[in-house]
Amino acid sequence: MLHAECSCGWTGTRHTVDRIAAGDVPIRESGLVTAERCEKEWHTGTISVGNTTVPLLAELEELLLAVAAPIENLGRDAPTTVLKAARTLGLIAEWTAYWPAYAAPVPAPRRHTRSFLDRYDGWSPYG
Prior knowledge:
By secondary structure, the protein is an all-alpha fold. The chain contains 6 helices and no strands.
């Protein structure tokens, strides 16, 4: 069984990989069509969720896209550099989201929202 999931709590439809029809083909290959189907559902789900959330300021969205494009292009030639850039972006997200995550109201479904915000407010179940 394969299905897409999102950190916001959205879960896609479960799809079965037909192992009998696949025969001796490895799961990595036989499940590819099903995985692509799940990816399309996930993409559709993220668009739906994105359309119902607080929008980014257009200027900020343009800036983020302008940063993402060259990093993605660099991935072909310098993957370790991209990993460092991704880590740096993660640190920036933590620095800038700490207080807003701490102060943000937690709507339903609380479990998914709280776990998302916990990435930024420094809270950990491990102390």
